[in-house]
Amino acid sequence: MTSQAKEEAxxxxxxxxxxxxxxxxTLGDEEYGLEILKVREIIGLMEITSVPQTPEFIKGVxxxxxxxxxxxxxxxxxxxxxxxxxxETCIIVVDIVEMLMGILVDTVSEVVDVPxxxxxxxxxxxxxxxxxxxxxxxxxxxxxKILLDIAKVLSQKEMMNIAMLEGIETDENPR
Length: 175
Hints:
By secondary structure, the chain is α+β, with helices and mostly antiparallel strands. The protein is 18% helix and 41% strand. It has helices at 3-12, 15-18, 74-77, 150-153, 156-165, and strands at residues 20-27, 30-35, 39-44, 58-64, 67-73, 90-96, 99-105, 107-114, 119-120, 134-140, 143-148. The strands form two sheets. The protein has a six-stranded mixed beta sheet.
């Protein structure tokens, strides 16, 4: 990337806009953060009803207090190997454009306050690799946490397909 391109990308980046509280979690050895205002709740791993003919990263749906919620495995979405579930594996229920969705993660860590001074722009890997789902890179406790824009982790087409799963019937939630 040329210095001019870096300057232009940097001028669009506004750390003040994304500073705030983040729920941090891990996938493998990497640490991530989600804007706390997008998080509805954190639940332990529960039975997930698989849905045929969906992409591998869509684990299926859960019945959470009578509401059918699609669940995605962020490891698979990010091209990582599927993990064996442990006692620490959990589902973060997030609100994305008025749609609830569960995100399967290895462990939830803590809620942290990330000041603008500790946020750098997302890395640029060239034109063929999209990082638009990364809000920024949070530097805390000598570690880097990837701050996610959860609404952009999935493409619009993927979001539409997942939205259709909300109407699916489960054993615990018959129509």
